[in-house]
Structures are given as structure tokens and as C-alpha cells.
Amino acid sequence: MGLFVKNQKIEGLNSYGKPKLPPGQYKTEKFPVLTYGPTQKITKEEWKFRVWGLVGEEREWTWKEFMKLPQSKFQADFHCVTHWSRFDSVWEGVFFRDFVKEIRPRLEAKYVLQHAYGGYTTNLPLTWMIEEDVMFVHTVDGKPLEPDHGGPMRVITPKRYAWKGAKWIRGLEFLAKDKPGFWEVNGYSNTADPWKEERFW
């Protein structure tokens, strides 16, 4: 059996009331690995997470400290800009909407720039980050997130193409003005809505 299930008709809507399979996508049962640059290998003992910019106080967490934050589990799909979609994975971690209560963004903070180990960045409006499904993920389908997929911790953004959630997340920068990240600077969409096929500028 090939990687993709092509020409299938996927019935039904997702929890947002949109078609389960966005236009131009194929369903896959596997979890393909797509990364620009080398895979980052960060142990939990080495991992640190920092917030800075327009926040009440700059802070840093170790892995153990981050694991003390409210932990959640939910089921969501994962859509890659390279046309594959993976359905109904169970993700575990910390929702951004819970995390943001710890840091008190300043009123002028309107955007969030995700920073990853290895130098990758990606951007989203703060209002989109606070939506119900944006999560810092450390476990998928009951197993720790592997380095190839962004472990020990990555961000997922189920309403956006997957590049809008940084692998190997190491921090967030809160900004008053939008600042495009790596792929956005290189021609990819700033909004990245799979149902509108917002793949490129």
C-alpha cells in the first residue's frame, strides 16, 4: 500500500464545521517527515523554554517546570502544505490558551513569533494562538514525540498548515507588529488556511 490514499472521497465535517479533507490534500495513515535543515536533537535535560518581548515579565522554564503546567489531551487532524493530511491523531501537551495565563502579554502585544532550536521561526496573530486548539505537544498517539517530528516539544496549529507550528520549540517572542518567519519570508502564505489552499503568497 502506498503512502497516500488517492482519489478517495472523505465524508463529513471536522469539529470546525469544515470538510474533513481540505482541497488539494491526500489522506495518509503514516506520519511523513519533512524538515528544512538538520533534525535537532535536544534532550529533556537540555531543553529550555523562554518568553520575551511584550510580556509582563520575561521568563524561562525547564522541562520539569513546563510539565507542571496544565496538561491536556485532544484529537485533531494535521495538514501539511505538501498535500498530505493525517486524521484523528491524539495529541498531548499544554494548550497555548492555558499557557498564556502564566505570562500576561501586554496590551500592545498582537503577534507571536515562535522560535525553534536550529533557528527556525514562524508567526501568528496572538488572537489565533489563543484559539482552542493550538498546543505545545510532547506526546502523539500515546508515544513521546520523536525528534524527526519536533520532539521533545513542538507546536501544532490544526486550523493552519503544519509549518505554522514550529518543531523543537524553544521560545515565544511577543510583538506589536507582525514579523514573518522563515517560510513566510521565502514565499509561503502568512495565513496558511488549508481550506482556502493558502499555500503561497
The N- and C-terminal alpha carbons lie at a distance of 35 Å
* Weakly predicted, low-confidence segments: 1-8
Query: In which range does the helix fraction lie?
Result: under 10%
**With helices defined by DSSP (H or I, 4 residues minimum), what is the helix count?**
4
Kindly report the average pLDDT value.
93
CATH superfamily of the domain at 42-75 and 89-190: Oxidoreductase, molybdopterin-binding domain
Please report the first level of CATH classification, the CATH class of the domain at 42-75 and 89-190: Alpha Beta
Percent in strands:
25-35%
Shape label: globular
CATH topology of the domain at 42-75 and 89-190: Sulfite Oxidase, Chain A, domain 2
- Helix/strand/pairing class, anyone? mainly beta
| H-E string | EEEEHEEHEEHEEEEH
CATH architectural designation of the domain at 42-75 and 89-190: Alpha-Beta Complex
User: Largest sheet, described in full?
Assistant: 7 strands, mixed
Q: State the total count of DSSP E strands.
A: 12
Radius of gyration: 16 Å
Question: What features would you describe in this structure?
Answer:
Helix content is 8%, strand content 32%. The strands form 2 sheets. Strands 1, 2, 5, 6, 9, 10 and 11 form a 7-stranded mixed beta sheet that branches. β5 (72-79) and β6 form a beta hairpin. The protein has a domain at 42-75 and 89-190: Sulfite Oxidase, Chain A, domain 2. It is mainly β and 201 residues long. The chain is built from 4 helices and 12 strands. It has helices at residues 63-67, 96-99, 126-129, 182-185; strands at residues 4-5, 26-28, 48-53, 59-62, 72-79, 84-95, 111-116, 121-125, 135-140, 143-144, 154-156, 169-175.
